Amino acid sequence: MAEPTFQQRLEYYGLSAVVWLVGRLPYGALRRLAAVVGSIAYHADKRGRQVARANLDAAFGDKYTPKEKARIAERSYQTFARTMLELFWAPNLSPERFQQLAVVEGLDHPSGHKEIGKPVIYLCLHYSNFEWMSLISAYIVEPGLVITQKFRNPLLGAIFDRLRSSTGHQIFPQERAMIRMLKHLKSGGKFSMLNDLNIDPDEAGVIIETFGGLKLCATQMHAALAMRTGALIMPVECHPMPDGRVRMHIHPPLEYPEGATAAEVTQLCWNVLEPSIHAEPHLWLWAYKHWRFKPSQGDTSRYPFYSNVAKRFDKLLRETEKAKKDRAA
């Protein structure tokens, strides 16, 4: 690995100081701090505000007024700030503290939890505190695997790896991740991953439909792994509570017909989780470019300004439509 630059070292020491400081704050202060930090970030990030507004226009049309959309976008920044602050605070978690700070619903589905030992993929969105859903799963289910995130500054990656493994999860790199997870599931293991990862069509993605018509190229990794190993897919979501605690809701194992394609399974997963975005839109990450590609044919007026036409996206879309017709025949 190349010698870190001065800027990379500066970023490392700065983030290390922030993590150290946040870890020494009382938990109750994080929500108030997140409201301030998120609001500052929202007003300072002009480009992010434009993306968030365009996404809200695409997803909801005229359902909300411009003023309401601006408030949803700002609260989305505050939600993300709270997610990051609580991740920085996570080394303070313990099984006892978790009982005080979180409520878990859905553990009455024993088919997918530790007492049975079946392999499970827990699936969530960039919605509310998705980081804690992974961390707390080590207590309510069992420690699992976490894929390391690649950072331009590798020094920062080491900090996030330490935080994300602070409750007992094992960290491993993205290289050969599919093989590693395949072996993990075949041995009865469990892990969590995100469903709304917008990827390039060349990266083995599948097309799903979101918000009543917007096409998105999403990862199919969870679907492919489940079909190869027989693992259950259990959608999960997190909701903040008025008293500062978080509520983790685990949905029943996903049911899909025999012979379903990876695209169909991925769509079913999205269908379970999208209603929560409609119910509490401020909890989703609106400043992220969810719809980077759009079809070259048909009415694409709903797509955000940053969406682009790409031949590889059209090709995957045609393949998806053909598979649907072949299944229906």
Explain how this protein is built.
It is found in: Cell inner membrane. One of its GO terms (molecular function) is acyltransferase activity. Keywords: Acyltransferase, Cell inner membrane, Cell membrane, Membrane, Transferase. It comes from Terrimicrobium sacchariphilum. It contains eleven helices and eleven strands. It has 329 residues and is α/β, with parallel strands linked by helices. It has one domain (6-328). Strand 8 (232-240) and strand 9 (246-250) form a beta hairpin. The N and C termini lie far apart (54 Å). 36% of the residues are buried.
Topology:
Elements: H1 6-22, H2 27-44, H3 46-60, H4 66-89, H5 95-101, E1 102-105, E2 120-124, H6 130-140, E3 145-147, H7 154-164, E4 170-172, H8 177-186, E5 190-194, E6 205-210, E7 214-219, H9 221-229, E8 232-240, E9 246-250, H10 262-279, E10 293-294, E11 308-309, H11 311-328
Parallel strand pairs: 1-9, 2-5, 2-8, 3-4, 10-11
Antiparallel strand pairs: 6-7, 8-9
Helix pairs in contact: 1-4, 1-7, 2-4, 3-4, 8-9, 9-10
